[in-house]
Amino acid sequence: MSRPPVSIVIRTLNAAETLGEVLLGLHRDESDQLIVVDSGSTDGTVELARSQGAEIIVIRKDDFTYGRALNRGFSAARHDWVLSLSAHTIPADRSFLESYRRAIGRFTESVTVAVGPILGEFDAALSGGITFFQGYDLRRGFGFGAGNPNSLYRRSTWQRRPFDEEIGGGEDLQWYFDALKAGETIAAVHAAGVHYRNRRSMRAFYQKGRVDYRAMARFFEPHRPSLPGIFIRAAKLALYIPLGRVDWAGAKGSLAHCVGNYVEARALARQAGPPQR
């Protein structure tokens, strides 16, 4: 079986703390292409990426949106399949890229995007298998915990339908919905897992929680978090820390993200007004 080469696009901003581990965990072939789209790093991120053979694309911080950065990176891609990764998503095991390569060999022409799971920091990678989603599966609960921090796209389809550059978040959900409406197939590649290790501030996680909830609400009615639910999550995290299932930084980020979800859900409910009788 042939080993299809992959173009890898990673968006960065002051990500030197984790980028090296991401690149080390990829175990790239010589034919693979590495592209880093940077929006103003000052911590050595660009120098680190260049030392690992990355092609560097610089985008002004004021011009940055997730969709625009991805479109710039995808435009430089040479291969048929393009992997979008976050600078904070560490491959769960050394077979990460190989799992995607094997999956490509099983894809029909209808598969235009594949996603791998985003695992908790101490979760083990899944053993394998592929789930295919079509039609309205996304509305019915497609919830594989993935998005552009770990997604593989058919480049020819992206050329016809690039990412929306104007929305502040959820460009991956928008792309998935458009794919399903066009009769395309989404493949969930269970073995291609990554661990998310972003050490951003609690405020940043709170803001991300609001953006993520707003993005989901554009497409379906997401679960509305409650105050008791937040307290339950806090209690669970307090138990997980001494058990080693999550560290303090991860626990704070998870809780702040949940609070952001809650605040945004309430804000959207107020905008919608009382339910119609």
Cα-atom radius of gyration = 19 Å
Summarize model confidence as the mean pLDDT. Answer: 86
CATH homologous superfamily caption of the largest domain: Spore Coat Polysaccharide Biosynthesis Protein SpsA, Chain A
Q: Give the % helix.
A: 40-55%
Can you put this structure into words, describing what you see?
The chain is an alpha/beta fold. The chain has 2 domains: 6-196, Alpha-Beta Complex (Spore Coat Polysaccharide Biosynthesis Protein SpsA, Chain A); 202-272. The chain is built from 9 helices and 11 strands. It has helices at residues 16-26, 45-51, 66-75, 96-104, 155-160, 171-181, 202-217, 227-243, 248-272; strands at residues 6-12, 33-38, 55-58, 81-86, 89-91, 111-115, 118-119, 130-133, 150-154, 185-189, 194-196. The strands form 2 sheets. The chain has an 8-stranded mixed beta sheet, with helices on both faces. Strand 2, helix 2 and strand 3 form a beta-alpha-beta unit. The longest helix has 25 residues, at 248-272. The termini are far apart.
